Amino acid sequence: MKAAYFTARRQLEILDAPRPALQRPGDVILQVATVGVCGSDVHYYTAGRIGDQLVRYPATLGHECAGVVVEVGANVTHVNVGDRVAVDPAISCGQCDQCRAGRPHTCRNLRFLGCPGEAPGAAAEYIAIDAHCCHKIPAAMTLVQATLIEPLSVGVYAQQLANMAPDSATAVLGAGPIGLSVLMAIQAACPARIYVTDLLDNRLALANQLGARWTGQPRREDVVASITEVEPRGLDCVFECAGQQETLDQGLELLRPGGTLIMVGILEADRVSFNPNLLRRKELRIQNVRRQNACVSTAIDLVAAGKTPVDALATHHFPMEETRRAFDLVAGYEDGVVKALIHIRPQ
User: Fold this and answer.
1) Given this model, what pLDDT does residue 268 score?
2) Which parts of the chain have pLDDT scores under 50?
3) The CATH number of the domain where 315 resides is what?
4) What is residue 51's predicted lDDT score, i.e. its pLDDT?
5) Residue 104 · residue 92 · CB < 8 Å
6) Deepest of 15, 158, 270, 286, by most Cβ within 10 A of its Cβ?
7) Is residue 141 in a domain?
8) What is the pLDDT of residue 254?
């Protein structure tokens, strides 16, 4: 079979690889249809690392995916050959203290698709994966929509952690695929006054289409002043989705006393700083978001019900042989890209 590999920083090749075989009775073999290019994938592509997770070349890649079940292990009962599925890329052990406490996303033995030293990436014609990671999708749902379930489920989890009351005021700082997924999740669960910022006008335009009350570009205006003018008491929560020191600082300034900064974006820096005076005087909370924590089924239900128009994220499509082009496009924020999708299997 064919699989995509990182072979060096900013180098990516499509190479031959052995087709995976069933090794455990609880696994399935999935014929991959579509893979999304995620910001974390791009970090590995451009920097060769995220924090202390270092790429060892050659390395497989990708975790946002959907496909068709082609083989099932002896103990698999909830999916069958021929089922179309969305995939939760986090493979938890189910036995450790974190799994038993309802936190499989911080499993002590977690393996994540395409993560260095953990599980093979999804950008391949076939993958073997724990059947519990596979979620059947409705007949009317496309495999592109199923691939977009993964980023949407991160947005759903972030929204759940916020525990927002009706008529809350909030901001989403960073309108990439995750920020827009947060926006859609808020709109579906708890309509709120949502303020969105980003450096790219096409993403702000999309945020407006998806229900943002206001959008702003921080290189053209003081977004903190603009939002504070409308919300002088401050915001109930802020979703930081850009992974930048600048947006962390803006989030603290925008929050009301007792508000919550929800850190969703992946930071490239090993260290960031917070203004301790703002944190103390306002008694602010900081909540990190680690992936999607069992929110895939909820995300599928939202898309099936027409409450989250995820198709709007899919701006660019590439065949497998153009995977490197897709990564370069996303890494350079070129051509108005929001989400690039790689079609492993011709649609």
Assistant:
1) 78
2) none
3) 3.90.180.10
4) 82
5) yes
6) 158
7) no
8) 98
